[in-house]
Amino acid sequence: SSGSDENDVVVIGGGPGGYVAAIKAAQLGLKTTCIEKRGTLGGTCLNVGCIPSKALLHSSHMYHEAQHSFASHGVKFSSVEVDLPAMMGQKDKAVANLTRGIEGLFKKNKVNYVKGYGKFLSPSEVSVDTVEGGNTVVKGKNIIIATGSDVKSLPGLTIDEKRIVSSTGALALTEVPKKLVVIGAGYIGLEMGSVWGRLGSEVTVVEFGPDIVPAMDGEVRKQFQRSLEKQKMKFMLKTKVVSVETVGNGVKLTLEPAAGGDQTTLEADVVLVSAGRIPFTSGLGLDKIGVETDKAGRILVNERFVTNVPGVHAIGDVIPGPMLAHKAEEDGVACVEFIAGKEGHVDYDLVPGVVYTHPEVASVGKTEEQVKALGVDYRVGKFPFLANSRAKAIDDAEGIVKVLAEKETDKILGVHIMSPNAGELIHEAVLALHYGASSEDIARTCHAHPTMSEALKEAAMATYDKPIHI
Ligand code: FAD
């Protein structure tokens, strides 16, 4: 079906970048085919990333609350236990429903879907080894590479997805490990560490750098780390992993201080390797058509998402920028708008970042460290959730809002929130930054009471005046 007739747009990869680009292209009237090798749509995010991790974060949080919070709310029962297969089943059901949902959206928007592994024959022809075992050639005036990213392993270590796992294995463990060691204190490691910690694992996070989630505002990060430590997560920062070997039924890690020094060992039942992700382009035949990449293997594009090869575009995790699903989606829409002769735009300074632990941490714009480095005079407004009535009412009041605004103009430069549901609360700030709002704009906007969002209003007030409730 896709073989001989030429497409306006061919998308390689059906993740949040690729499938959104394909739907948008079809909506703009372009004849579109999307090629995906996995057998299901949604990419890393839907199949082995954002969605299954959030399913398990929610389920494990419910268990944790049942154990530690329900009684103080007057909800008592004699025992509570984890049914891990059922928990995994609910996660798998959510994933299956959502991937089928995207197939439905493809049909609705008349996106042609080819299941198979794509590789370039020329800048306008992609050969696909189909999932069914055949081969077909898909032609397009424009090709969009949206092949995403893959787990980065560490030298001398073999991920078996049973005892030495990537995030993919950590989303599908068949029993709760007694001891879990997480290598890498980025958001993926902390989220998966939280899941298993809540279900009963002793979790130790080993990190080479001096800080967990280094991109986070320093002050918020300190509170966040304390919060995770209260949840019994242990941190070994400035620590290098020298080797990881399976021994008997377990795993032995050899560690040494990042700055050099005596080695120590650490035992674990399961080790999660979450030390970053790398762009995925293997088997794609980039060299065949001469597409340029940087040292990290990321495909280089101009501001219209076009590579050095005319007609060949790239978006999402496979190009430079934050490796996040919503960023990939924005890339996809803008890329296709350019192809359709319209103007596309992504503001990379305003891509929100969220860590979906409990409490969550969400941020947009600049950290205090970044503002300082810019050398602009600024003000800081803070408000703790301990003084927020809704948070107190539900007895879930750990966290803070921090607003950074330019001193002279009061223009908001960055907002950082640590709280339950911070990932939802942040969007008011994202919108404010998009509109170039001042902190007074937020402070003078009527917020419903009692809501967690009032904490943002008060923090905004605190940047140029006094907050009311503290
Ligand atoms: P991908 O989602 O990686 O999709 C690329 C697709 O292309 C894949 O399905 C792959 O099979 C296919 N493909 C590759 N090569 C070929 C080929 N040659 N032919 C055909 N098909 C091919 N981001 C967030 O924003 N929020 C989160 O909460 C979040 N949580 C995460 C949790 C985990 C555990 C992980 C691993 C990631 C998480 N991410 C999260 C990151 C997010 O998953 C990625 O940023 C996002 O999936 C990138 O989208 P993409 O479309 O660029 O690539």
What would your notes on this structure say?
The protein is α/β, with parallel strands linked by helices and about 475 residues long. The radius of gyration is 24 Å and the shape is globular. Strand 9, helix 7 and strand 10 (about 235) form a beta-alpha-beta unit. Helix 1 runs parallel beside helix 9. The chain has helices at about 15-25, 45-50, 50-70, 85-110, 165-170, 185-200, 220-230, 285-290, 325-340, 370-375, 390-395, 420-435, 440-445, 455-465, and strands spanning about 5-10, 30-35, 110-120, 125-130, 135-145, 150, 165, 180-185, 200-205, 235, 240-245, 250-255, 265-270, 270-275, 275-280, 310-315, 355, 360-365, 380-385, 400-405, 410-420. It has 14 helices and 21 strands. The protein binds flavin-adenine dinucleotide.
Query: What percentage of residues falls in helices of 4 or more residues?
Result: 25-40%
List low-confidence stretches: none
Number of helices: 14
Total count of strands: 21
Integer average pLDDT: 97
For the report, how would you describe the main beta sheet?
5 strands, mixed, barrel
Using the CA coordinates, give the radius of gyration: 24 Å
